[in-house]
Request: fold
Amino acid sequence: MIACSTVKKRDIRSHYDLSTLFYRLLWGRHIHHGLWTADETPSVAQQRLTETLAREAGILQHDRVLDVGCGMGGSSLYLAKQLGCAVTGVTISPLQRRWAQSAACLGRLPKRPTFLCADAETITFPPASFDIVWSVECTEHLFDKPAFFRRSAEWLRPGGRVAICAWLAGDRTDANAIQQVHDVCEGFFCPSLGTQHDYVQWMQQAGLKLCACHDWTNSVTKTWEICRDRVRRSGMRWLAQAIDRNSVMFLDRFNTILEAYQTGAMKYGCFVAERTR
Ligand SMILES: C[S@@+](CC[C@H](N)C(=O)[O-])C[C@H]1O[C@@H](n2cnc3c(N)ncnc32)[C@H](O)[C@@H]1O
Reply:
């Protein structure tokens, strides 16, 4: 695991309060990578990532799903609409909660998801409340990742599964790679990035049985070529300067993350693990 000690929880919250509009304009409703097989549009690639994770996790009609770090509700709304899941979404950003709840009210959904503004590291749920704990690109922001998996295991019924997509530190241990991962953590407000091995260990230590573990790096990297080019072509950096220095740093690190994927300093992982008892 590679850590960045300067990241604070309040900065993560204000980043998402301030940047959600940027994400919406730049990328769409999903705040996560696309999963490419060819030359699809970004929105098709983003949707493929969501659908592929749902398939990998074996989500069934009407499952009770906890969406940890739900953003604008992209995954929650998809799971509610396509599979009739009963979804509870949690985000640390009050603005995102309102955004997601409004989108749910406007959509024609068999079961309307509930969105909560809370810290996933302190929120509590009764044991065995969910069939699936789903988290796409949020565990990067958690300070105690092993504790999150222990708590998730308790929230799952026996036979329930965690479904995770996460930015990872790669296997390189040289100073350049460590610096690149550190710079990504700083620019994107991640207190640490775990390796693929770390995630597997945290899940196993929480009593979860690993069902799937994929390296999707090559299929997601294009995300940052597109985002970097969109920032260059738009006036977004200028707008960020008018907001604060963190917003400028965030946009400037798009190139760093692209290089980190290309050089093996970072990876992108998908994990599914089951509570067996
Ligand atoms: C990269 S976005 C992913 C959003 C969403 N999963 C998606 O795929 O569109 C990260 C999300 O994690 C949330 N987040 C970060 N730290 C959190 C915490 N401690 N508790 C709850 N949500 C958190 C942010 O508010 C944001 O919604």
Notes: The two ends are 29 Å apart (CA to CA). Residues 9-26 form the longest helix (18 residues). The mean pLDDT is 95. Residues 12, 16, 30-32, 69-71, 74-75, 90-93, 96, 119-121, 136-138, 141-142 surround S-adenosylmethionine (CB under 6 Å).
